[in-house]
What we know:
The protein has ten helices and 13 strands. It is of the alpha/beta class. It has a nine-stranded mixed β-sheet with strand order 5-4-1-8-9-10-11-12-13, with helices on both faces. Helix 3 packs parallel to helix 4. The protein starts with a strand and ends with a helix. The site of alpha-D-ribofuranose has 15 residues, from strand 2, helix 1 and strand 7.
Amino acid sequence: xxxxVLGSINMDxxxxxxxxxxxxxxxxxxxxxxxxxxxxxxxxxxxxxxGTTTQFIGRVGEDAFGRGVIDLIAxxxxxxxxxxxxPDSSTGLAVINVDAQAENSIIVxxxxxxxxxxxxxxxxxxxxxxxxxxxxxxxxxxxxxxAAAQAAREAGALVILDPAPAKPLPxxxxxxxxxxxxxxxEAEVLVGFRPTNQAEAAQAASILRERGVETAVIKLGAQxxxxxxxxxxxxxxxxxxxxxxxxxAGDAFNGGLAVxxxxxxxxxxxIRWGAATxxxxxxxxxxxxxxxxxxxxxxxxxxx
Length: 304
Ligand code: RIB
């Protein structure tokens, strides 16, 4: 395996609405879809569809949503043998609204995702024997993710943590993860201010690097992506696409970044791959369903 992803898998229940509802308001939506999601699984599908051998480690419940999600993902180019069916938990769910500007709001019911324990670390350790990159997020227990990060370091793999959804991180997390990829809201929780431009992103990245991460990547959404390591820093302008649904764009970024780094591409090129993968994910509906193919990524990169 080249990329191993430990994290969440959800059934996403997504409605498309003209605008996000106000408290107490009833709105008519235009469409409803049920697709597999979860920040972890979305990152795995992004990496798999870009052509890299990818394994996902996670859990679903022994219920109708769990069976449904497993059925729906059977044809994805991702090894899902590391998904445990947990009889004591419900399958993770996400209730999502997407408005006419393609913006979204998400409520997650974690279920089995927050029941991860040492068994996930054991499955990761096995998968990491041949992996180059481990992808982590914050929708499953942090102590288990950090134990997997330690295992990845011992196996010589690169660890990329997407600190989403946002929460403050312990010192250990900065030391165990090579790359941290917050968006502007997540960066605010980590460093105490919201970066809104390149200069502020550079300031936020410096703070994260002082805490121990080798490379800080600040995703500024439609404004682009800033990155900084000890060797280099730079900014990638947003790719021009027609966005219809921004759900999982950040997850797509991390999948694209991981694949490029697993292929030993330079950091600046890997950030471009991430940004282009994220941009393409906004052009289709849903979460894992919106991840682009390698051909689509190559075309967008060649055009810009
Ligand atoms: O990042 C998007 C994802 O967040 C959705 O797929 C949803 O399941 C939540 O985990």
